[in-house]
Amino acid sequence: MLYDRYVNPLTDFGFKKLFGTEPNKELLIDFLNALLDKKIVNLNYSSNEHVGQTKIDRKAIFDLYCIGENGERFIVEMQKAKQNYFKDRSVYYASFPIQQQAKKKEWNFRLDPVYSVGILDFVFEDHRHDPALIHRVDLKNQKGETFYDKLQFVYIELPKFTKTLEELETKLDKWLYVFKHLALLDELPVQLQERIFKKLFKIAEIAKFNPTERQAYQNSLKYYRDIKNVVDTSREEGREEGREEGREEGREERNIEVAKQLKKNKIAVDIIIAATGLTEEQIAKL
Questions:
Q1: Which residues 6+ apart lie within 8 Å of 165 measured at CB?
Q2: What DSSP designation does 249 have?
Q3: Between β-strands 64-68 and 59-61, what pairing exists: parallel, antiparallel or unpaired?
């Protein structure tokens, strides 16, 4: 049964319901403008699957892929659990919108900007002691000067956002609060009484979903909770075993042990992948 009033935006269904459809793209535009300090007027959704050159990159899939009216590319991903080599994965995915811009015949190699945005429901291991919740990554030279300004990675570590409603100051603060707390609210707070959030809360009402949408959301919510439970359990087991979370070898070893237990308990492979970062091939060999 669904007892919450509003959809959880950290679920696949909730994220795409709010930000991944043409009628609701105003919400995504407003969020990106607040995050990137831009003035995006319009976005067009593009296919989020790209055929690669090899079997390995046959399908690079990300949550949302949009193109701005001036040609800018925006990849926006919601990540629920840590994955091995997550930063490598982000760079790899960003290469597809870059390659897609190639023109046949003569071309001067001019590229439009690419922005890769990761909304993370976890904290990077190497950022555990860093209070910054937003990490903006640009290409710079040895002097710290910008070498190339058309490729930017932005990572938001949501667990680090701890502001209360009374402490919200900026539009970005309000968006981060919505991401983290929407599913826990019973009504639109006074601090969010703005047109854009009124629209979001109206769209997010579960009671207005049709039966197909309700079932899809229920499945998505179960998947999200399963991942969270698995991640929390594996983290607790890791602490009990006294392993250092910062050691790559220990972390991978723990992931393998967790995957073995999950596989033994017949947990779905996609949940094991999301919870441990192992590949389907690695899991199959366990």
A1: 177, 189, 190, 191
A2: H
A3: unpaired
Backbone φ and ψ of 265, nearest 5°: -90, 10
Residues in CB range of 83: below 8 A, 6 or more apart: 89, 274, 277
Tokens in use for 88? Answer: 């490598």
Could you tell me which residues come within 8 angstroms of residue 63 by beta carbon, excluding any fewer than 6 positions away? 12, 15, 16, 20, 48, 76, 77, 78
pLDDT in tens, 229-256: 776 665 555 544 544 444 455 667 777 8
Q: Could you tell me the end-to-end alpha-carbon distance of the chain, in angstroms, rounded to an integer?
A: 35
- 48: in domain: no
| 31, 43 Cβ separation under 8 angstroms | no
Identify whether the C-beta of residue 150 lies closer than 8 Å to the C-beta of residue 112.
Answer: yes
Q: Kindly indicate the confidence band of residue 26, based on its pLDDT and cuts at 50, 70 and 90.
A: very high
In a domain, 74, yes or no: no
Cα dihedral 217, 223, 226, 230, rounded to 10, equals: -140
Give the integer Cα–Cα distance in Å for 286 and 125: 25
Length of the chain: 286
Dihedral of alpha carbons 220, 224, 227, 233, sign:
negative
Give domain status of residue 83, yes or no.
no
Number of folded domains in the chain? 1
By residue range, what is the domain housing residue 238?
A: 209-286
Distance between alpha carbon 115 and the CA centroid of its chain, in Å? Answer: 13
pTM: 0.82
Q: How far apart are CA 270 and CA 276, in angstroms?
A: 10
Q: Which of 188, 189, 192, 128 lies closest to 157, judged by CA?
A: 128
Domain membership of residue 180 (yes or no) is: no
Q: What is the pLDDT of residue 56?
A: 47
